Write a sequence for this structure.
């Protein structure tokens, strides 16, 4: 791998991050509200999820939020699983309210029945003959009350069963949501949202160590996978995930942030160590064959291009990720295997962005 290690100081002018700029442009063009969950939805669309991108485009200009949320829920995006869980919780609350109303009505009916029985008992105590003569009409009324109580009990039992089913579904959904919020479903690695959350401690005031973010693109993987049935690259991705896991220390962090993108977050390292690790990982990938459906991709078929950013050159988790993304784009455009984020990368990105806006 080839790299240049010039870094941009924190007070250097920052170019408009390309990924954030694209998301902002789409939001403005389509009239999409700048909500965090919409950011995640557009990140997914712009980061290679063609299905999500097509469905958003089909909504046209100024789509309503419910339609956007429906797309995200259909594709089980992490940021919207919480929304789904909230909807399930709302349904559970509605059922509880219905059960409470039924129980209250049932209580009133039981109280009325007890009062009727007490009145009948009092009349029979005062005048047994008259009480017995009136009992036939009282019995009809009591029978009606008892039937109402039995019916209410059955309704309450059925609603309790519905509530139990909904609560079981909610509990299961929350468990799935927690997993989906933080993990890629194919590889089991952390996802983009989990990575950003894991980056936050490095930007707190008391943070004393420098971290490196290594963003890798697996060359040829996306193009090759798209010419085959959905899920064809699953075995390949799992093998890649294993290589990335084996390439870092226990306290380092591995994530998959796109169809062909993997990240390593390395704690307490300098630029030289980060570059050496990136090269070592790339070497391991290049020297290994990979399973693909019922065959094998030969060694060297898949290669890595890397972009590296350092936490001392960024001011936030999103900026750190975007700087790695810029470095990766620079490496790809210039035909080199690795690039560290630098003032040169920022300047090139800024020129590219301005040229695109002027076009």
């Amino acid at each position: 791998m080839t790299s240049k290690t010039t870094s941009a100081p924190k007070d250097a002018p920052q170019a408009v991050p390309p990924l954030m700029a694209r998301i902002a442009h789409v939001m403005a063009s389509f009239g999409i509200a700048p909500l965090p969950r919409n950011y995640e939805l557009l990140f997914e669309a712009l980061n290679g999820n063609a299905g999500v991108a097509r469905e958003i485009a089909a909504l046209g200009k100024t789509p309503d939020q419910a339609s956007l949320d429906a797309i995200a829920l259909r594709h089980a995006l992490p940021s919207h699983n919480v929304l789904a869980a909230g909807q399930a919780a709302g349904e559970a609350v509605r059922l509880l309210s219905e059960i409470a109303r039924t129980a209250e009505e049932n209580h009133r009916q039981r109280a009325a029945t007890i009062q009727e029985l007490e009145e009948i008992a009092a009349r029979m105590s005062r005048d047994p003959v008259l009480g017995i003569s009136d009992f036939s009409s009282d019995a009809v009324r009591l029978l009606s009350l008892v039937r109402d109580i039995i019916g209410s009990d059955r309704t309450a039992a059925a609603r309790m069963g519905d509530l139990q089913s909904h609560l079981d579904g909610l509990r299961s959904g929350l468990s799935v949501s927690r997993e989906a919020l933080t993990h890629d479903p194919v590889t089991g690695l952390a996802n983009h949202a989990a990575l950003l959350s894991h980056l936050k401690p490095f930007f707190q005031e008391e943070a004393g160590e420098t971290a490196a973010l290594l963003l890798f693109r697996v060359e040829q993987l996306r193009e090759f996978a798209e010419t085959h049935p959905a899920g064809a690259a699953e075995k390949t991705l799992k093998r890649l995930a294993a290589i990335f896991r084996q390439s870092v220390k226990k306290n380092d962090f591995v994530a998959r942030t796109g169809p062909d993108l993997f990240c390593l977050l390395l704690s307490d390292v300098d630029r030289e160590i980060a570059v050496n690790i990136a090269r070592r990982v790339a070497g391991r990938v290049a020297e290994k064959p990979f399973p693909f459906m019922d065959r094998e991709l030969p060694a060297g078929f898949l290669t890595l291009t890397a972009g590296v950013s350092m936490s001392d050159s960024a001011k936030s988790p999103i900026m750190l990720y975007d700087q790695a993304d810029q470095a990766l784009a620079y490496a790809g455009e210039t035909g080199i295997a690795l690039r560290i984020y630098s003032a040169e990368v920022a300047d090139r990105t800024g020129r590219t962005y301005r040229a695109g806006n002027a076009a």
Remarks:
- Residues 128-182 form the longest helix (55 residues).
- Residues 2-17 have pLDDT under 50 and may be disordered.
- Residues 246 and 281 are 9 Å apart (CA to CA).
